Amino acid sequence: MLSAFARPAGAALRRSLSTSAQNNAKVAVLGASGGIGQPLSLLLKNSPLVSRLTLYDIAHTPGVAADLSHIETRATVKGYLGPEQLPDCLKGCDVVVIPAGVPRKPGMTRDDLFNTNATIVATLTAACAQHCPEAMVCIISNPVNSTIPITAEVFKKHGVYNPDKIFGVTTLDIVRANTFVAELKGLDPARVHVPVIGGHAGKTIIPVISQCTPKVDFPQDQLTTLIGRIQEAGTEVVKAKAGAGSATLSMAYAGARFVFSLVDAMNGKEGVVECSFVKSQETDCPYFSTPLLLGVRILRLGRLTVEEAEFSVFTTQERGPARLLQISFVQ
Ligand SMILES: NC(=O)c1ccc[n+]([C@@H]2O[C@H](COP(=O)([O-])OP(=O)(O)OC[C@H]3O[C@@H](n4cnc5c(N)ncnc54)[C@H](O)[C@@H]3O)[C@@H](O)[C@H]2O)c1
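That is the input. Now the predicted structure with nicotinamide-adenine-dinucleotide docked in place:
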């Protein structure tokens, strides 16, 4: 089972997510001046769910905050600049979203970002552990497959680790899968739901097309191309931006969608499901993305098709598809 979301005591778990502040979420964005941070902050400022938005970065936050603060929505906005202002940015937060760090350039993998972003995420999450240990922490910074374990270790070191409150934001993979399936089938993307499990890099991204709603079927060659496109969609954007960064606008949309789902669940809404990369006992991997019924439990996936398993990184000698199918995904 994957974190306390997976345990059967639904009511108790719902309490662990609950906040007294209905539609009153205090949200911090760390890395708020960046390509993702700015549009993400705009979407959060535009939401009636958010009452306080605190924006942190090592550059430009006074300007970003001043700009956003003129928008006629209820969330107050304040900018914080540099490490000495970080504690004040975090105090009292319900949710912290972290898109701080460097993005990919053409030819780079997400793992190439590790050295720089690992340090940034470790520093920022240490401040979260100290100044808002109860907040939900949503990590966007890549490589997510590594920045989540790093965050867990930082929280453990500070003695405030709660795996239910640390999320790797993989929502963009789901958003892309929904969009690409809808394009191919002539459907409304808003009505397409594709679970995407595993991790957030290349072949660790496993779109479970067989569990798409509505049900969709593809010829094998089209399915192969579709899965490959979802797995490499980030690289598609990196190449198209030709050195000017990676996905920012679609990521801001996806990050905001995840935060809104989280806040909905914190406000007691039932049946909110999002995939996220979290501490997991669903497979041999200590961290894994599966659908989460937020506030209650991990949703178990049904059987993967052999093709889906084969397209994943798990088709190695050690972790063959049959084993994955048997142990991990049979309900
Ligand atoms: N999870 C996903 O699906 C996904 C998708 C796209 C991008 N990303 C990742 O998100 C991250 C940010 O991407 P971007 O395009 O916004 O990059 P960006 O360079 O445009 O912005 C990053 C921001 O982080 C800030 N920053 C750097 N060091 C910091 C520190 N120590 N404290 C606070 N802020 C700091 C920078 O000043 C900058 O404003 C990258 O790691 C990228 O790979 C993740």
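DSSP finds twelve helices and eleven strands in the chain.
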